[in-house]
Automatic annotation (TrEMBL):
Residues 216-231 have a biased composition (Low complexity). One of its GO terms (molecular function) is lipid binding. One of its GO terms (cellular component) is mitochondrial matrix. Its main location: cytoplasm. It comes from Hymenochirus boettgeri. This is Mitochondria-eating protein. Keywords: Coiled coil, Cytoplasm, Lipid-binding, Membrane, Mitochondrion, Mitochondrion outer membrane. It is found in: Cytoplasm; Mitochondrion matrix; Mitochondrion outer membrane. The lineage of its organism: Eukaryota, Metazoa, Chordata, Craniata, Vertebrata. Belongs to the MIEAP family.
Length: 485
């Protein structure tokens, strides 16, 4: 008991209770109702702690005094205190009534709360439905946006393709225009050269006529009459005629070599822009050369027939009609319709089974090259001994005195795989070497290519009899000499 009393004395519960009572008294009118209730409950808790300790001391003291010790004291002191418990019961009943009123108010408020809750739930469900619809609209908008992007990208690609196609067409048109301008300039220059040649020829004829006029006073009128009967009589001696033929032949051979060295490379570079296969490009140029010689020879035959038909009724003189016809053709090479030959060559190349080309490429790109070869080939037919290209066929035996190999050829291959440039011949003798590619197995490749073609391989550069003759007889090294290319 002494220990319990000492702990109660040493504890600060009573002092804290007194301080809180003083503070509550000071702030009672300032605090709210909830704060005052909280303070009251806190003081009751402190008071209950103190009462618990006092009841402990009371029970210990009563046990120490015996069974009847202090009974009178407890009765005298606690009975009046117990009588005061009735107001406490009334407060308890008030508290119960308060709880009942709270329960009643809660029951009254619960339906309104449920109604509000149901209203909020309905609003929440409608909001969720709207949210789902908005999400669906958003997905549809995204899909439409993706479709629009795809269509825009497709349209942009199509526009870029059209732009590239238009640029390619513009470039091709510019190249064609440049080629036409170049051809027209070359035609003008050629016409100027021809006019200059004609002026020189007319000047020579004028001098000849003057000399004849001076010789007309000689006592031999018969000779004068025989010379003046033919309007196409030549004043040159046989030696000078041979020199003229030889000089024309040398000039034509030189021009043939220039076409190989310059014009052929220009045409090859032009075709490589559209055809990546170099072998096919070389085949196209070779076939164009062969077809040009064929077209020029046919045009020469027709032109010679027309000139012979025109001059034969009025021919009189010591010279033969053939010499007069050739002389007239040499003096009027500009009357040759080279464009018709170019069109024939392009038509023949379009149906040739050995070559292929993209659909956007037209052989008119190399019309300038074809025109030059046709002119040279036509002029070569006016020589006393016409020049022609050698007969060629894929898979033929390679001759060192007829062809020279390309840099990418197989040096030990005995057969020609394909030709790059034809050899130039005078009768059966090689005067300018050609160029060919030699590969092993060239014969089988040529047989397969011939079996695939629907029409027989054209060999227009020479007749069958001449072809067999040229194949059976090897070219003579005496006339071939050093190659001119």
């Amino acid at each position: 008991m002494a220990d319990t009393l000492r702990r109660l004395t040493n504890s600060e519960t009573c002092r804290i209770l007194q301080e809180k009572l003083g503070d509550w008294f000071k702030d009672y009118h300032i605090n709210s109702c909830d704060n005052n209730l909280n303070m009251c409950c806190e003081l009751l808790e402190l008071n209950s702690k103190i009462q618990g300790q006092l009841f402990t001391i009371l029970s210990v003291t009563a046990r120490e005094g015996g069974q009847y010790a202090g009974v009178e004291t407890i009765k005298r002191r606690f009975l009046p205190w117990l009588e005061t418990c009735f107001p406490i019961s009334s407060s308890v009943s008030d508290t119960c009534l308060l709880h009942e009123s709270w329960d009643r108010s809660l029951r009254d408020l619960s339906p309104s709360h449920e109604r509000k809750l149901s209203r909020v739930e309905s609003q929440l469900s409608s909001t969720r439905i709207e949210l789902n619809s908005l999400r669906q609209e958003l997905l549809e908008s995204q899909m439409e946006l993706e479709d629009t992007k795809t269509k825009s990208a497709t349209t942009l690609l199509a526009t870029e393709e059209e732009i590239l196609q238009l640029r390619a067409e513009l470039r091709a048109a510019k190249e064609k225009l440049e080629l036409r301008e170049f051809d027209s300039i070359e035609d003008y220059e050629r016409q100027i050269r021809l006019m200059k040649d004609e002026i020189s020829i007319l000047s020579a004829e004028k001098e000849t006529l003057k000399s004849r006029l001076s010789r007309s006073r000689s006592p031999s009128p018969l000779r004068h009459t025989s010379r003046s009967t033919s309007p196409f009589a030549r004043s040159e001696s046989p030696t000078s005629a041979k020199l003229t033929n030889a000089s024309r032949q040398s000039r034509l051979i030189s021009r043939f070599n220039d076409i190989y060295a310059n014009d052929r490379l220009d045409a090859q570079n032009l075709l490589i822009r559209y055809i990546e296969d170099v072998e096919m490009v070389q085949r196209i140029i070779f076939i164009a050369t062969v077809e040009s010689f064929h077209a020029a020879k046919m045009a020469f035959k027709q032109f010679r027939l027309r000139v012979r038909k025109t001059l034969s009724p009025s021919h009189m003189g010591p010279e033969t009609l053939e010499d007069v016809v050739i002389d007239y053709i040499v003096r009027n090479l500009d009357l040759y319709d080279v464009q018709s030959s170019v069109n024939e060559v392009i038509s023949a190349m379009n149906v040739n089974p050995k070559i292929s080309f993209p659909p956007e490429v037209d052989f008119i790109l190399i019309s300038g090259f074809i025109r030059e070869v046709c002119r040279v080939a036509f002029a070569m037919q006016t020589l006393e001994t016409p020049l022609d290209i050698a007969f060629t066929v894929d898979g033929e035996l390679f001759y060192d005195n007829k062809y020279r190999r390309t840099y990418d050829s197989e040096l030990t291959a005995p057969l020609v795989f394909y030709h790059v440039w034809p050899a130039l011949m005078e009768n059966d003798f090689i005067i300018v070497k050609g160029e060919a590619v030699t590969r092993r197995g060239a014969l089988w490749s040529s047989v397969r290519s011939r079996s695939r073609s629907a029409s027989p391989v054209r060999a227009r550069s020479a007749s069958p009899g001449r072809a067999l003759k040229s194949r059976s007889r090897s070219p003579s090294p005496r006339r071939s000499g050093t190659p001119r290319i």
